[in-house]
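Field log, afternoon session.

UNIT: design team B
ACTIVITY: writing a sequence onto a fixed backbone
BACKBONE:
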């Protein structure tokens, strides 16, 4: 589980629909527009990301980092580990 202050950056990205580039713990990357967060029935927290291939849900525990694609006043890069 990521800490609350880091979770706030995910919420900001969703609130403003920022385009982000995510790096996952396995080294893979995804890019898209942050849409929403959710808690699944198994208590898994996910980030919903609209990608060129459709909506994907990323387990927040799998996040290594998030970079803002466009300049914004809130963050440019966030490291979750």
């Amino acid at each position: 589980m990521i800490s609350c202050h880091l979770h706030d950056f995910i919420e900001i990205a969703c609130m403003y629909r920022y385009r982000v580039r995510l790096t996952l713990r396995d080294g893979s990357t995804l890019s898209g527009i942050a849409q929403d967060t959710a808690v699944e029935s198994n208590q898994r927290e996910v980030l919903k990301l609209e990608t060129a291939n459709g909506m994907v849900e990323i387990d927040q525990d799998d996040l290594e980092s998030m970079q803002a694609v466009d300049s914004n006043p809130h963050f440019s890069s966030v490291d979750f580990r």
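LOG NOTE: The chain has one helix and six strands.
NEXT ACTIVITY: expression trials, pending approval
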